[in-house]
Amino acid sequence: MNKLALYMWWALYEVYHGKTSTGGPKGSIPGTIRIPTGAELDKYFKAGGAAGYDPKVHWCGIFQVYLLKNAGVACSWEREIVDDSGGRDLEIVRGDEAKKGLAAGDIVRINHNEHHFMVLEPTEKGSIKCLEGNAGSIDKPLLAAYWMGSAKYNVVEDVYIRYRVVGRT
Q1: What is the pLDDT of residues 66-102, one digit of tens each?
Q2: CA neighbours within 13 Å on the CB side: how many for 104?
Q3: 60-70 vs 3-16: helix axis angle to the nearest 10?
Q4: 66: closest CA among 50, 79, 47?
Q5: Can you give the three-state secondary structure of 96-145, one letter per residue?
Q6: DSSP 44-89
Q7: What is the pTM of this model?
Q8: Sign of dihedral through CA atoms 48, 52, 58, 60?
Q9: Apex CA 132: angle with CA 54 and CA 124, to 5°?
């Protein structure tokens, strides 16, 4: 399995294992959410280089680093995702080019709260269907897929960095 497929597998596993629910009252908000355990939060933060979970820290990018590392992508967290592979595992594009040709498995960073998440469906404009950590903000830790709870912010127009897994083995 290549690194992109592994990254996507780990992301789906993290959101969908255990007890999941819809994003709100039945039928009101599409998507799936799951509250991670304290041990899971510690695991995510440790992958980002921290000693453990810190409830004062936004962890959306840290969660993506955890998923990438599980897929064998050489990266680290330094208040953003850093490519430690010299371009072999990650392609990083900034500015207007980052908004073009978003594909499933891309990670994007948007202007609203410097939020990071994985794109689930190709899109050229408007809302981005996504998989994200820190979906409920720091005071309500949530993992979410297709939730669209942040749809007014998770839009192509606000993307300013795109990370794409390019490592094949």
Answers
A1: 999 999 999 999 989 999 999 999 999 999 999 999 9
A2: 10
A3: 130
A4: 47
A5: HHHHCCECCCCEEEECHHHCEEEECCCECCCECCEEEECCCCCCCCCEEE
A6: HHHHTT-SS--TTS--HHHHHHHHHHHTT--EEESSSEEE-STTSS
A7: 0.92
A8: positive
A9: 145
